[in-house]
Amino acid sequence: MHAYRSHTCVELSEANVGEEVRLSGWINRKRDHGQLVFVDLRDHYGLTQCVIDSSDACFEMVESARLESVVTVTGEVLKRSDETINTSLPTGHIEVRIEKFSVQSAADTLPLQVNSDENSGEETRLRYRFLDLRRTRPHDNIMLRAQIIQSIRGRMVALGFTEFQTPILTASSPEGARDFLVPARLHPGKFYALPQAPQQFKQLIMVSGFDRYFQIAPCFRDEDSRADRSPGEFYQLDLEMSFVEQQDVFDAVEPVIRGVFEEFSDKSIDSEFVHIPYAESMLKYGNDKPDLRVPFEITDVTEIFRDSGFSIFAKNVEKGAVVRAVPGPKCGSRAIADRMNSWAQSEGAPGMGYIIYGDGEARGPVAKAVGAEKAEEIRVAAGVGDGDAVFFACAPANEAASLAGRARVKIGEDQGLIDQDSFKFAWVVDFPMFELDEVTGKIDFSHNPFSMPQGGMEALENMDPLEIKAWQYDLVCNGIELSSGAIRNHLPEVMYKAFEIAGYENSVVDEKFPAMINAFRFGAPPHGGIAPGIDRIVMLIANEPNIREVILFPMNGKAEDLMMAAPSAVDDVALADLYIRRVPVIKSKSD
RNA sequence: GGGGGUGUAGCUCAGUUGGUUAGAGCGCUGGCCUGUCACGCCAGAGGCCGCGGGUUCGAGUCCCGUCACUCCCGCCA
């Protein structure tokens, strides 16, 4: 017989009754009846109940073995009597009589409870991740992730995409997020950077003539974490296609995403992903990642408040502010309105005006100030009725949109109006090519500098830069940005011109993007692509509120790996090899 | 960098208006229990109430500071 096991802990059934078997695994739980002990033995595959009574030689060993110790059990498979069958276990019709018992590895008192569905504190979970991962839900999440990635690979290959690996040590790029830098031993004073995404490589793969590329690609960005953003590193389904327009990319990606979501989740999915222009999304949803599960939209009511009796808004509108109205279904009470107002203050806004509609009339300070006629206009514009409320965000357009957007989601959540059993996908399209930097007042790329402007060279030469749209798109699901992509700019002259508008001379392009600009001089196919975030896809399908739940060994919010104790100090000898010297950290008061 | 939340036994948590000896479940140690499957019963050990200062006759509880974890804003082409 094998030294450790003849079967796994899920395999045995009535068919094996009478066989001598050997199982190895962890002690999940024990039930000690004094003269009779039950041991639930757990491995990756399942649970098998093992049993021993005091007449047996190894009884005391079994009785004293601690939970989570790794043990090997040898014995006969017994059929359970009808009254003792456990129908909630696949192996519940049998049990194994412990005839030989050995402890392969004893466990200390546990820092977290493995056989519990309750999460321990985050720090404990991360420090003892190998214990946390034994628990059912984390274990299942990681298996789900592996299966999703496997399914994605299969789907991509079936569509004629080929998986390539791209470099991990590459050049720092001036745009975008903060880079992780790696000192170059052979080049004192110089650094590699970890790729924020294989962006330039995948475009160069197209220029190299490979037509359809994909990769489950690690991406590295030194930016702060969020619940849906792991610090440091994450994975994208990176893909790129030659000779395509925007709709071709959608047609390729949509079935893959829908297929994966349908394969691994029971939630409903619309048959077609809606297309929402960026400007419309900002207006109706207050952001570029709309949660379409919230069953109401924001309306612009600026003109109703212009010259109205509500002087605070009227004055702000005169100065260029806008007013956005957020419907509040069943929010027609003073208590809810007050709660929204203090919520808005906690979000950094001065507050949130409101009108309450009830018994055929409009109530509240705003309603009084603007009069019944305008209050009715607002009610119709917002599409609400008796018992509802309307909340107002009055500020410069970006700020008002943002506050209204957050209020919309909050109302949806608070009022229980979000369908928890659906995935609502949307393509957000027509992103602006450029935007105004609010601090410097300069024009800059609003998204990806490698995107093709809609209208090409002609648009760059003749239009107001802020009016130019790009062939740039996001895929959004339930208010989470799943992916971002674009039709790329493959024309050197158009690229120079675009960078020129953003304030960069040709020489900057030549210096910072030598590969791209060189490549585009030797016959570059028109191409485009997208890069859905793997971690976020798994997080949505697993129905987890935090991205750490779908990552094997995640870092904490401060980008530390508590289990491995990374980052860590290194000695001066290692630094000297790299021509690096430590300097004291100087903390100024302004820090 | 800024704001919010949390921090009490190995783990998950309770702890009233500031008032005697800080509790429960799980786990751990010991005892009882031969059909449990979150087994049951009895007993015990285990506490710098995150840390430091302050107010007070008296602080787990109030105040200030600080640290840790977390969520959000900034940031994330």
TL;DR of this structure?
The chain is built from 18 helices and 25 strands. The longest helix is centred in the N-terminal third of the chain and has 23 residues, at 136-158. The protein is of the alpha+beta class.
Could you explain how this protein is built, in words?
- It is globular, with a radius of gyration of 30 Å.
- The strands form six sheets. An eight-stranded mixed β-sheet has the order 7-10-11-25-24-23-20-13, with helices on both faces. Strands 1-2-3-5-4 form a five-stranded mixed beta barrel. Strands 14-15-18-16-17 form a five-stranded antiparallel β-sheet, with helices on both faces.
- The model has no long low-confidence stretch (mean pLDDT 93).
- It contains 18 helices and 25 strands.
- The chain has 591 residues and is α+β, with helices and mostly antiparallel strands.
- Helix 4 runs antiparallel to helix 6 (246-264) and helix 7 crosses helix 12 (397-414).
- The structure holds one RNA strand of 77 nucleotides.
List its traits.
591 residues; alpha+beta; eight-stranded mixed beta sheet; five-stranded mixed β-barrel; 18 helices; RNA-binding
Write the topology of this structure.
Elements: E1 20-32, E2 36-42, E3 47-53, H1 59-64, E4 70-79, E5 94-97, E6 100-105, H2 122-127, H3 129-132, H4 136-158, E7 162-163, E8 181-183, E9 191-193, H5 199-207, E10 212-221, E11 232-242, H6 246-264, E12 268-269, E13 274-277, H7 278-285, E14 299-300, H8 302-305, H9 311-318, E15 322-328, H10 334-346, E16 353-358, E17 361-363, H11 365-382, E18 389-395, H12 397-414, E19 422-423, E20 425-429, E21 434-436, E22 443-445, H13 456-462, E23 472-477, E24 480-487, H14 492-501, H15 506-512, H16 514-519, E25 527-532, H17 534-542, H18 572-577
Parallel strand pairs: 3-5, 7-10, 12-19, 13-20
Antiparallel strand pairs: 1-2, 1-4, 2-3, 4-5, 4-6, 8-9, 10-11, 11-25, 14-15, 15-18, 16-17, 16-18, 20-23, 21-22, 23-24, 24-25
The structure holds one RNA strand of 77 nucleotides.
